[in-house]
Amino acid sequence: MASQSGAGIAAAGFYLPRCAIREDEYRRGAGRFAAEGVTEKGVAGFDEDEVTMAVAAGDRLLADVNRAIVDVLAFATSNTVAGGALVAEALGVDPARARDVWGSTDAGETALAGAIDTAAREGTQTLVLAADAPRTDPSTPEEDPLGAAAVALLVTPKGVSWSRGTRPSQSVIRHKVGDVGAASVLLSFLTTIEPAEVTGDVDVAGALKAREYVTYERYLAIRRHRPPPGTEFSQGAYVSLPAYLGEKKARYRLVGERCTECGRVHFPPREACLACGAQSWVDVPLNRTGTVYAYTIIGKGAAPSEFLEQQVAVGEYATAIVELSEGPRVAAMMTDVDPKQVRIGMPVRAVFRRIYAQEGVTRYGFKFTPA
Amino acid sequence: MARDVAVIGAGMSPFGDLKRTAKSLFAEAFSEALDSVDKGLDPRDIREAYIGNMGFGGGQIGNLAALMTEHARMLHVPTRKVENACASSGYAFRDAYLAVKSGAADVAVAGGVEVMNDVPDVRKRFWLGVSGDTEWERLAGLTFPGVYAMMAVRHMHEYGTTREQMAAVAVKNHANGARNPKAQFRKEVTMEKALASAMVAFPFTLYDCCGTTDGAACAILAAKDIVPRYTDAPVWVLGSGAASDHLAVHDRESMTRLDATIAAAKAAYGQADITASDVDVAEVHDCFTIAEILAAEDLGFAEKGKGGTLAPEGVTAKDGRLPVNPSGGLKAKGHPLGATGAAQVYEIFLQLRGEAGDRQVATPEVGLAHNVGGSGATCAVHVFGR
Questions:
Q1: Of B86, B218, B287, B379, which is the active-site residue?
Q2: Does B321 touch chain A (CB under 8 A)?
Q3: pLDDT tens-digit profile of A210-257?
Q4: Does the domain at residues B131-210+238-385 carry the CATH identifier 3.40.47.10?
Q5: SS3 sequence, chain A?
Q6: Closest by Cβ to A331, choosing from B126, B151, B250
Q7: What is the mean predicted confidence (pLDDT) over B269-282?
Q8: Does the N-terminal or the C-terminal CB of chain B have fewer CB atoms within 10 Å?
Q9: Does the active-site annotation cover B71?
């Protein structure tokens, strides 16, 4: 039992990708596995990266915590990705409160130590999000030990204490998730916290049991973020960045609008109320669940150009019109599901994912996955 | 002021993967239209020209209409491109009709053209999805077949429509296309082959979808008082209806009907003072097999939910009670987006004049052309009589 006398962790959450690969399978496919001590590791989905996983971990934590108490959001990753503001937007936290710590595997520890320091000295409440997913070349041995995971820790003036250098034995978790960079130490630490000590979820062992194991061939396909030769997509669906980002609250967080005249809820946003024609709105956060109203499976080779890279990598995919529990319907891709399992009426929930990249900018948004 | 309007001539280029330019295809369609005017027509008599085109691929985009008309011997005519995706020339026809009916022009041309096969596959993929909702539907990874496939999934769910009923539409339209010398696909297809071909978007196989097509079509319209100058066998425009709807299907109340079709048909039937049962032959917008089933219901040819029964029961066959798409439809004749609406008018013109050759249906009095833009955001319906 850790001490709770001073500044420390009051709430926790984490995210492990749905898929994993075992050492023997990786070695069979790659002909090597330069990852001593790792017996299996997590595999980020094709549409996941450190940003989406940080959002998933943050979502889990904020399910039990009022996000208004977050003074600072610190996003830590070993990659050269400054995603703090984007993660904040997706979590409904003011992006002006976002900080980035990146470029080093101890970015998570740096962020957490800083958070505890400001909590102790100034009473600042910081949401620390540490996430990593490999951006190496899968054909190189550097790839072998790299896993993917995210941790969310809410630091307040009173919580479970931690100090830099407190490094639980790596064997606690590394052999199951692989090297997860900036999230490594924080994830190991999280497994030492008793559920009763914090709000949120620290049941890493439970999450590990729910994973699905993939073949090395599938692993390589999912990991290939570069378009294979001959599939370059010179023209994608053109939704300009200003148009896309102008609807951030809808695209990242499924915030709908309620007509102030007649009360009808719309999603996606409209310019005039469908019921009464009024043009005055208040935001309504939707609960991000619904059921499949209609669906199709886009066959191999039939994707729009901007999704060709994805289709070459992962094959056919399901897309759906989801009837949200508040009533409106929206078209969105399905993810983390066998396309053939999708049915009308299937309960689903929204998850934050990569949608596609255009002009070098990754577009993020929501997809749906079985609830 | 409003005057009766007739189609006095119509023409169409071959449809297919043609390796030809838009201007050559349009000039050919226009020449045939001109030649079909029984007593001849001087192109200088044409007062307005409306050219349907979506802009697929990457040929001339701006000012396309001027390029078409100059090469079709209509230099200096007032012209413009009309764009409503796949309903572009259905709307071009409506605009030409309104111009003549209003008295603004005595003779007007309504045509359309599209060249779709002059770009590599990766570019086609871009263009094939630009007429559905881009901001949400397309970013959900939806293709055009995908959007109609979802309508089919709903129709199957709500009314028990089957893949076999949809495939029967393909079998019928391919049989018709085989008799049309200008059709893109002139080969019959069996039910087994249609059902077993590659899955494009569940529940659609390749044979549930129209192809990508190059082609042009054209109609010439004239006011009643001068029609006798040109022909003794005019095809009268009895009614013109058009409507629009939500662009994105997720915003529509129902996914198993096209409200734009229902509203356009109501307007056209009302003006013509007919009902659906008066229609003897119809060219409907079968970009996908389910689209012909939806059209049959929305146009009133079948009870709601029963549209799937028409093709298997032979009702819509060439020799059936109500022949639908005797040309082969978009499915077999081909679907050069901006040309499709005008090509439907061409077919009805031939059918009502008894000039449709091997695919002529028995002595029709009333014909209908139904042209849909995208997944139903726009629709134009025209009713014709002898």
A1: B86
A2: no
A3: 999 999 999 998 887 565 555 455 566 678 888 898 899 999 999 999
A4: yes
A5: CCCCCCCEEEEEEEECCCEEEEHHHHHHHHCCCCCCCCCEEEECCCCCCHHHHHHHHHHHHHCCCCHHHCCEEEEEECCCCCCHHHHHHHHCCCHHHEEEEECCCCHHHHHHHHHHHHHHHHCCCEEEEEEECCCCCCCCHHHCCECCEEEEEEEECCCECCCCCCCCCHHHCHHHHCECHHHHHHHHHHCCCCHHHCEECCCHHHHHHCCEECCHHHHHHHHCCCCCCCCCCCCCCCCCHHHHHCCHHHHHHCEEEEECCCCCEECCCCCCCCCCCCCCEEEEECCCEEEEEEEEEECCCCCCHHHHHHHHHHCCEEEEEEEECCCCEEEEEECCCCHHHCCCCCEEEEEEEEEEEECCEEEEEEEEEEC
A6: B250
A7: 98
A8: N
A9: no
